[in-house]
Amino acid sequence: MLTRKQFELLRFIHERLRESGVPPSFDEMKDALDLRSKSGIHRLIMALEERGFIRRLPNRARALEVIKLPDGVGSAPAARGRFSPSVVQGGLSAKSKPAAPVPEDDGRGSISIPVMGRIAAGTPISAIQSRSHSVAMPADMLGSGEHFALEVRGDSMVEAGILDGDTVVIRRQDTANTGDIIVALIDDEEATLKRLRKRGSSIALEAANPAYETRVLGPDRVKIQGRLVNLMRKY
């Protein structure tokens, strides 16, 4: 049995997915349900997930999938599967095109890495949503694990040598050590590139630019999406 607000949110997500194929943002959900804060939306989503009506897809902002609807409401949209980007060969300027997944290693000691949108080095923005193109990097510069890349927007990490317009290469992982530069997902909605500092039970996201303040957040508000392992720059 769903509460009225849970049902309204489920129906809103379902209708938005059916119309556009893209889940609504937390702000859109908050406005649709006439709630004062996004924390209420977060609690409703957790309740719907616990009851098996929706699923949050890992490693993506704004990624929701409706699994089922209450009896008599209609069918849920077809499942689109978990986040699993296909890889295409190409350089820094190559555009993505429909293609079947291929092995990452191209046989010449080079790895093709999907670029998954933009990451903020400044004010957080949504990120890790869809592949835009791919970049090639020597395999011996990566090490083990799964990797993806993001284009940097902003100047909050300039003193760490990360400039606006750079492409950062990220090893996908959900843990990191103090001092690592990470992709942090805040409140399941906003992503940012910052240096991780652990302060007791809190997490500090530290900029490498004195013009930006360090954000200190509770551990329940921050999800680590990966750790910086390399960087590419256009000249």
Please tell me about this protein's structure.
Helix content is 16%, strand content 30%. The protein has 235 residues and is an alpha+beta fold. α1 packs across α3 (38-50) and α2 crosses α3 (38-50). It starts with a helix and ends with a strand. Residues 75-107 have low confidence and may be disordered.
Largest sheet: 9 strands, mixed
Structural class per helix/strand content? alpha+beta
- Helical fraction: 10-25%
Order of helices and strands: HHHEEEEEEEEEEE
Strand order of the largest sheet: 4-3-5-6-11-7-8-9-10
Indicate the proportion of strand residues. Answer: 25-35%
Indicate the mean pLDDT: 76
Amino- and carboxy-terminal Cα gap: 58 Å
Uncertain runs are: 75-107
Query: Helix tally?
Result: 3
Instruction: State the total count of DSSP E strands.
Output: 11
Oligomeric organization of the protein chains? single chain
Q: Could you say which overall geometry the principal axes of the C-alpha atoms support? A: globular
Rg (C-alpha, Å): 19 Å
